Amino acid sequence: MSTLEKTATVNKAADLSCDIGGGIVLKSPILNASGAFHPAVISQMLSIGDVFGALVTKTVTPQPRAGNPQYRAVELPGIGMLNSIGLQNAGLENILEKEVPQWLGFGNTPLILSLSAETPEAFAKMAKTIEAHALGQQIMAYELNLSCPNVAKGGLDFGSSPSLISDIIKTLRSTSAKPLYAKLTPNVQSVLPMAEAAIKAGVTGLVAINTVLGLAIDTRQKKAILPRVSGGYSGPGIRPIALHHVWQLHKAFPDTPIIGVGGIETADDILQFLMAGASAVQVGTSCFRTPDIFQTLHQDLLAYCCQENLQALSQLRGIAH
After folding, report:
1. Residues 166, 170, 173, CA angle at the centre, nearest 5°?
2. Cβ contact 219:196 at 8 Å
3. Of 18, 148, 287, 305, which is the active-site residue?
4. N or C end of the chain, less CB within 10 A?
């Protein structure tokens, strides 16, 4: 047991709650990143209800998607991985019937459904379908995947266009009152115009960032490993990039909740995101190597609060500014 974990045992009263807008206060700032996690697997190693502020599903599309051809993942030892999954999923109707009940089956942990579509109208139709479903009211919010680098339409073409981002959110806002969180891409000259468009259109908060475009080459076959050539780079190597974007977003839009994501491996990483302006964080790639990392992060945050005599972790939000 680490020193931090030992210290945490005497600090159960520390307040780890965070406000992510839309009237939502989570009991913990720790969320999973979409696509890197399934609660049915993780729950065999730890109690999900004790650790997570909310759960984020894999991205769902209106119709089933087979995803991209293999290879679709490349391990980059020490610095992360590349992926080119291509939003493989069973489609909205199947997800509502088969997957959502599993995600809702873990205590009272709120559920955020990650959505992707190819037009603003398709996003709105998805929301209508969800909210007409028996389980629709149990879904707390939507994360709008406007930034996947591994699809031809509905990913970076959305995430690099302020007008499209605005249209999507305005159209969704006309059909749904649920909180909306726009997941932004770092693969643009500046993320600020995208964020401004989302905020003006009525988004509840921002998720920053999605994966960074990257490439790996097979030196024996003398060609790119991924059939699509480039893929989404995630892992500890992108943490400084994600932190930079969170800092810039909080500086420009201090009243907008931000969920920081990118390369988090330790509680210290989380603290840096909070101090840069994030209200909460998502953890993805590191859980492939260390599936119980969420429990460790939770305990180490409690320990930090004890060591610093900090009553509420939310006091750190933006403090580095």
Report:
1. 140
2. no
3. 148
4. N
